[in-house]
Amino acid sequence: MIHESRVQLLRVGMPDSKGSFVLLWVQASVRVTDNHALEYAVREANRLGLPLAAVFGLTPSFPEANARHYQFLLEGLRDLSAGLAARGIPFSVRLGSPPDVVLAASKGAAVVITDRGYLRIQRQWREDLAVRLGVPLVQVESEALIPVQTTSPKQEYAARTIRPKIHRLWHDYFVPLEPHELKRQGQDWPTDLDLPQLDVSAPSATVKTLPLDFSVPPGREAGGEVAALARLSAFVGQQLAGYADTRNDPTQDGSSRLSAFLHYGQLSPLTAALAAREHGGPGADTFLEELIVRRELSFNLCQYNPHYDTYDGVPDWARKTLEEHAGDKREALYTREQLDRAETHDPYWNASQNEMVRTGRMHNYMRMYWGKKVLEWTETPREAHAHLIALNNRYEQDGRNANSFAGISWVFGLHDRPWTRRPIFGTVRYMNAGGLKRKFDIETYARRWA
Length: 450
Prior knowledge:
The chain folds into 3 domains: 1-143, HUPs (Rossmann fold, 3-Layer(aba) Sandwich); 145-178 and 224-304, Serine Threonine Protein Phosphatase 5, Tetratricopeptide repeat, CATH 1.25.40; 311-448, Orthogonal Bundle (DNA Cyclobutane Dipyrimidine Photolyase, subunit A, domain 3), CATH 1.10.579.10. It is 47% helix and 7% strand. It has 20 helices and 6 strands. Strands 1-6-5-2-3-4 form a 6-stranded mixed beta sheet. The mean pLDDT is 95. Belongs to the DNA photolyase class-2 family.
């Protein structure tokens, strides 16, 4: 089922009666499973009696992305190419600005269908194309279980304010998405599409041909829809039952490790939610809270707060109390370069930084501690926020992500409440190494990533 609330006309009009195909612009939802934009495009092509073609515009200058991120992305495009081919849908990956790529590929199209993204650059791409395109542009939500504007018309204060709104709606959206067979096939790409085409069959070779920052090597986990579904199956079958108890312990393999797949659109939140609901139990309840409530709270932030990725997006009360204590004495001060190299006096912080640099991910509990300490070790909270954004975006496989932006600003008080006043932090929540030692065997974690 595709709810009407998922569908938004970005350029109004009737499909071009002279169009010879329907074009699917893939950008955020890089998969065939539970892809509402793809299924909507198939149904629209069938309704018009036309074939369907798909295109992805790959820009090598995505802000702060490096070879680590592009390798994971290309692995997803490889799997998508195979999945679309199996359904009779030709797919082309072209090098260039995504709106320019789609505009060129849309010559002869009756209508263009695309997916949805909540980051500023993703919205700008779609707005740019909408004003230049000569045929209707339809956006179909497939990255949130519930479209953000359907849940709430404003920025939500915290999880406790958005949770009841989501819970009132989510069972209506827990609906399996039935794939439809494409009735007419055979659309070929125009031979005069004057944009470089990328071969995505060998991602590790293709990534070397791009003008990228190669100083950060690929992470430890491969990307793509095949890997995403395998990881989901392993998590649900082996870890979900104990997820509520083990997820916050960095010495155990208790986390889902699905964040990067969700970020690159290689796994649908619907697929993951249905699998968890079918399994059931307290682990499933905890997982669904994070997958839907917390993740879509971050989308809410990006949709309604224009400063979601900067210190100015932190709530007024938190910035006020932090700035009142900006002159407090610090135990230590570190530059961004020292932080990058994990050269602090804190072995637990260094371990978390090393985990991120080496693998492309950091355990979520340690990421909270990691952020709080940078706030404590930097001259101003604004500078600390900038350090965290830069480090996270550089090394995390799911950096430049709504969840990441919300998580970093949580360090500074976003989606939280005032606590007991302390030096440096004011009434923003504080964390220390003592808490790590009480909760789990932090020395084992430190040794692992020393």
